[in-house]
Design brief:
Length: 492
């Protein structure tokens, strides 16, 4: 036992001596390189040494740069999001940020930090590298500030050689998929409007702001059956990616919301966006000059989004007015280009080849007068679901009373329900009346007075219409008799 202990001590001394010699040699080499070799050759020397050691390693390293030329590298962006939730106990430094109007913190790795991820029982090691460079020798496509201009960023992914196929065919696709899900769940919903000053810049033609609209399906004054139908249709749509691909159709869905002003069309759109966590793109067709602009705007919209064209009947009617103004301006010696956004261009936009430029999109048209729309717009495949936004019903009133007053029943409910259908008022009008008073009793009595006034107006309008119809009928009969007398006189 004594001999064994002595041999172990001797071995330890030998190892320590060897390590010390290697360390001393390394320090000597480093000093010589630093003091006697020009700095521009340092990188080449260390790169050569690294290659020598790499030849004896069974590990493979993939370098994932931030950009592929001037185009964003999808794998880099996915890794940045994915690794934010994969920080290990050995991680000492994190980057954390939160834009002013965003709801979530953004967590990411700090420079040169290392994260180890286990996938299918195999170990994958990540390092985030940031190299400073002279700004004048490097162009970063995201050149918003000097820091970005002077940094070249990349991830290094290291793993065992045997896992190359696993990394390429399974691990990296998994990361891209997970990153998309995380990005969708954590994003703040935005509403985008067209920036007409940058309409020819593909990356800046849409200007976003946060959508803070509080509407949700639980608070919308709508018949329960209709609400349930919309929710089921939305759920079915987002789950049918493979089905749409199988049948050869673009993964999109068209909705037409029609009904009087104040019936909740805009609120329903906001509720759909909040339910699906989709951004909204608000498009005003009357501001566009040509069909090509329409196509560019469609290409620039993101997947998982809702494209809205409000008051489509007014948009179509306005085209003749624009053309007339163009002709009038030309006749006065001024040249003005006629609007060339056509019905065929619009149809191709929602149902033609260009409609397939993107996935998981919802297109919504709204109108106050469905009878004014061209039948070509209304068929399935363009507007798949027609939703009639009706006047407030007893069911809608109860929901509004629950939301605004916090009550589900009251002695005045029966009287309100008896006259609300006859009064033909919108949910917006009912909501406004409920907001006028702080006391529940006063609020409901105020609503009853309002409904009675509206009912009286409707009855008077109906009576007047009947009277006009009767007068027109008498006049028609009188004119018919006079024409008959005149004809007989001419015959005689």
């Amino acid at each position: 036992m004594s001999s064994s202990a002595e041999s172990k001590i001797a071995l330890a001394k030998t190892v320590l001596s060897t390590v010390g010699s290697v360390a001393a040699t390394a320090m000597l080499v480093r000093t010589i390189v630093h003091d006697y070799i020009p700095p521009e050759f340092h990188e080449y020397i260390f790169f050569g040494l690294k290659n020598i050691f790499t030849k004896f390693s069974n590990e493979l390293t993939m370098v994932i740069d931030e950009f592929d030329g001037l185009v964003n590298n999808e794998i880099y962006e996915a890794a940045e999001i994915y690794l934010g939730n994969k920080l290990s106990p050995n991680t000492h430094r994190l980057k954390i940020s939160k834009p002013e109007k965003e709801k979530n913190f953004n967590i990411a790795m700090e420079h040169n930090e290392e994260v180890t991820d286990i996938y299918n029982g195999q170990k994958f090691k990540w390092i985030w590298l940031c190299i400073q460079t002279e700004a004048k020798h490097f162009h970063n496509p995201r050149d918003m500030n000097s820091t970005l201009k002077s940094e070249v960023r990349s991830f290094e992914l290291t793993f065992h050689n045997k896992n190359k196929d696993l990394a390429l065919n399974s691990y990296l696709p998994y990361i891209i998929k997970e990153a998309k899900l995380q990005k969708h769940e954590n994003k703040t919903i935005k509403i985008h409007t067209v920036d007409y000053e940058n309409i020819y810049n593909l990356h800046n033609m849409w200007k976003p702001v946060n959508l803070d609209h509080p509407a949700i399906f639980e608070t919308i004054a709508m018949e329960l059956d209709q609400k349930d139908m919309i929710l089921k249709d939305l759920e079915r749509f987002v789950k049918r990616k493979e089905y749409y691909r199988k049948v050869g159709k673009a993964w999109k869905r068209g909705y037409l919301l029609f009904g009087p002003p104040g019936t909740g069309k805009s609120s329903l759109i906001a509720a759909m966006a909040n339910y699906l966590n989709f951004d909204i793109y608000d498009l005003e067709l009357t501001e566009l000059r040509r069909n090509s602009d329409l196509r560019k705007l469609l290409v620039a919209t993101a997947n998982k989004s809702i494209l809205v064209v409000e008051d489509i009947d007014c948009t179509i009617d306005l085209q003749d007015n624009l053309a007339n103004r163009a002709v009038a301006a030309t006749s006065h010696g001024f040249h003005q280009q006629e609007s060339k956004v056509t019905l065929s261009g619009l149809l191709n936009f929602i149902d033609g080849l260009w409609s397939s430029c993107g996935d998981e999109r919802i297109i919504i048209f709204t109108t106050n007068h469905i009878e004014k729309l061209d039948p070509a717009l209304l068929r399935p495949g363009r507007m798949d679901v027609h939703i009639h936004m009706a006047y407030c019903t007893p069911c809608g009133f109860k929901l509004l009373a629950s939301n605004y007053l916090g009550i589900k029943e009251h002695k005045l409910f029966k009287e309100i329900e008896e006259i609300i259908d006859i009064a033909m008022v919108t949910p917006a009008e009912v909501a406004e009346q409920l907001l006028k008073e702080d006391e529940i009793e006063h609020s409901l009595k105020g609503l009853i007075n309002f409904l009675n006034v509206k009912r009286k107006e409707k009855e008077e309008a109906k009576a007047k219409k009947v009277e006009i119809t009767q007068v027109e009928s008498v006049n028609e009969k009188k004119e018919s008799v006079e024409n008959g007398i005149k004809e007989r006189e001419e015959e005689n």
